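dolichyl-phosphate beta-glucosyltransferase
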Amino acid sequence: MRTDSSPGTLPAREHLPAAPAGTPVLDVVVPVYNEEKDLQPCVRRLHEHLDRTFPYAFRITIADNASTDTTPQVARQLAAQIPEVTTFRLEQKGRGRALRAVWSASDAPVLAYMDVDLSTDLNALLPLVAPLISGHSDLAIGSRLARSSRVVRGPKREFISRAYNLILRGSLQARFSDAQCGFKAIRRDVARILLPLVEDTGWFFDTEMLVLAERAGLRIHEVPVDWVDDPDSTVHIVKTATDDLKGVWRVGRALATGSLPLDRLARPFGDDPRDRDIEDVPTGLARQLVGFCVVGVLSTLFYLLLYSGFRVFTGSQTANALALLVSAVANTAANRRLTFGVRGRGGAVRHQAQGLVVFGIGLALTSGSLAALNAATSEPAHSTELAVLVAANLAATVLRFLLFRAWVFPDRREDAPAPAAAPSCDTTPCRAGDVADSWRDATVQLLPVRPHDTDARDLR
C-alpha cells in the first residue's frame, strides 16, 4: 500500500471510454526486417483473423526496420489494398526502436505487437488485450512457459529461454514468466510514460520494459499461448544473449542505485483497493506485520554479524552503536519499500532522518541493557552479551514498528475530489466543445465497432 497521497502521473485504471466510429481501439505492430517472403501471408492472415473475431475497430502497422530487400514495396502494396493496414519505415534496425517509434505515434488506446512469423496462435490475441480494454491490467504478455501453454520447439531454444528467465528471476527479481515471447500489449497511457524510461532499442527492449513496469507496481497480465517455433528464424542467439546479459547488468545497476524515476508510473492514491478505508479492518496491518517481521529477522542477523565484527577491535558500547547505525539505515530502507510500500525517492531523506530518531531510541534500550549487564558483572561472556542484546532488540522492534506505522510511514489519506459535473447548456452558456470534452472524460462501456457496422462514407 502506498502511504503517500501524491496524485501520481498515470490516471486511475478504468474501462476505455467509447471511441468515435472508425477510430481504432487496437494497433497491432508487426516489426519486420527483410521479410519479403513472409510479410504478405502473415498480414493477410492476421487481418482475416481480426476482421472475423475482434469486436472493435483495429489497425495493423507494418514497422519496416531498414529492410534492404523488397519488404517496403510489399508493405506499401498491402497498405494500398487493405484499409486497416498502414506502414511505417525506419532507417535504423532494432525491434525496440521500431516499437518505440510506432507506439509513441499511435492514437489507439491499446498497443500490441507480434512477430511476423505468427508463431503464436492468434486465438490468444483477444485474451491478451481484453484486460487492457477493461482497465484491469496495464500490460499483457504471452507466456510460453506457463503450465497450460503448448509449445513446439527444439531443446536448444527451450534451454536458452528457461535459463534466461531464471537469470531474470535471480538477478532482477522478475516475477513474470516469459520475457521474450513476441506477443505483448500495453495501454497507450502507460506506454506514454514508460517508454521514455526504456533505453534499449533491440531485443532487450521487452525485458527492460517489463522489469521497470513490474518494479513500478504496474499490473502485468499473462496469457498462456500455443506456440510453434519458426525453424527459419533469423535471430542470432549468441549475440542476442550477450546483449541481453549486458542489459540485465545495466538495469540491475540502475535499480540498485535508485537512478530510475519509477515514481512517474504511480497511479493516483486510492486507485489501489488496499488504499481504501474498510470499517473494522485495519488497513494492511497483517501484511505489514509479516513484512516487518521478515525485515526485522534479517536486520537482527545483520546487526549481530556487524556487532561481532566490530567487537573484535572496539568495546561493546561502540560496537553496538556502529552496528545499530548501519543496520538501522538498511532496516528503514527495507521497511519503506517492502513493508509500507513506498516507492520512489520522494521523502526518502526525511524517512531516513525519522528512522535515525527511532534508531536512537533503540540505541538507548540496547545500550542501557549493556550498561545494566556490565554493572551486574565485570566481565560478561560474549554469549551473555548477545542474549541480552537479542532481548533488548525484541523490545526495541515492537516500539520501532509502532513508531514506523504511526509516525515515519503514517497512512495519509486524502479524500478524492468529487468529479466535476458536466456543463449544462440549459442553465449556463457553454461552448460546443465543453460538452464534447466532458463526454470524452466520462467512463462508459466501450461499444463494439466493426468495419461493416459503420457508414460506407466514414473514413477508417
